[in-house]
Amino acid sequence: MTGAKVLLMMGCPEVPIQTSIVLYLSHKLTKLGFDVTVAGTTAASKLLKVSDSDGYYVKKLVDLDKTIVDIIEKITDFDMCFAFMHNDAGMTYATTMSSISQARMYSVVFGRNAEALAETIEFDCEKIVAQDVHNPVRLKNKLDKVMGEIVI
What Gene3D superfamilies does its record include (predicted)? Predict the structure, then answer.
């Protein structure tokens, strides 16, 4: 699936590991030959821009709400979507994406209530769940496994 269009969808940046994991995943997927776009809320995008001010890890950063409109209007779409979520708002974005896009969905659920939130997912997706807030290593390892399966 090299060359496939991948969307990394960031919601509220309240939980610290989101920014580091998005930077990591964007960089890894880009190095593997995927066409990666990161879409975020205003706050999430600002954190990413400060963390990666030279655009080394994230080549394309766009507004999440505009991206959703572009998919609805059939201006763009993606082959895969990694939806990052730690609360109901993130779940809403992911649910919306699953209903408007043909992308294969990956729900990346993290934070203190990750297990409970993951249990409420009602759309077809692969769930990547880690009940972590500050330490991104367990989530990184789970994403590495998924990336290994995607590339094969």
Answer: MTH777-like (3.40.50.10160)
